[in-house]
Amino acid sequence: MAATLCGRLLPKSGWVPLTQNVRHGSKAVTRHRKPLHILKQKLLAVTEYIPPKPRAPPEALVPRRKWTQMEHPLANLLRKDLENVFEENKLIVVVHYNAIHTDDLTRLKLRLKKHDIRIRFFPNQVTRAFLNNSIYCNLLPLVCGKTVLFISKQAKVKEMLQTMKHYPEMVLLGGCVENTLMSYQGIVSYSKLQSIGVIQGQLVSDLTMITSQTHSLLRHHPVHLSALLQQHVKQKEPVDVDDTVGQEAAA
Question: Where is the signal peptide (predicted)?
Fold first, then answer.
């Protein structure tokens, strides 16, 4: 029985199935959309419509705070001190200092103090704020980097330059001498001038010499006039004698 069923169900040799799966390659999708040119893509991106964003209602906006910049009390104090420095001193120069040792700076302060010259350090921000609103605004380009002020109540420029020769780290930029703005060359030329005491002595000696010659100058013209008159009289005397002799001969 089992053998009979197996013989009926199992296919015989040489048997072909009624249906077969056949794949047709010609029916596959071979067409794809061509990509746009890069210039056209850019043009479409630029001309794309962007709808405006809806505005928020005024009630939803937080009012902005107005911050007012207030001057620091220390900066205000330094600015007033700097103003007093420019009012009370005749010599104010701006010096640029490089990497100088602390001991050398102390020695420089002591040497300058012998000539009544002091060194004052002020922040550049405070110095520029003061100079910007003062008559010394032309000193603004000098206040840049590491700068320091040399001040003195007397215009002792020559002593200051002689002291600074021993410290090449300190470079003189310019300054104000007796309310006159000067460059480096101007300060050097000013130091070569004679002191006021020497000039006053020369003026006094010249005036004394002139007053001593006043008496001789006043007597010069009368003496010269009298000499001319005497010479004139002497020249006329022979003429008068000849006239008298001629008159006697005619008589």
Answer: none
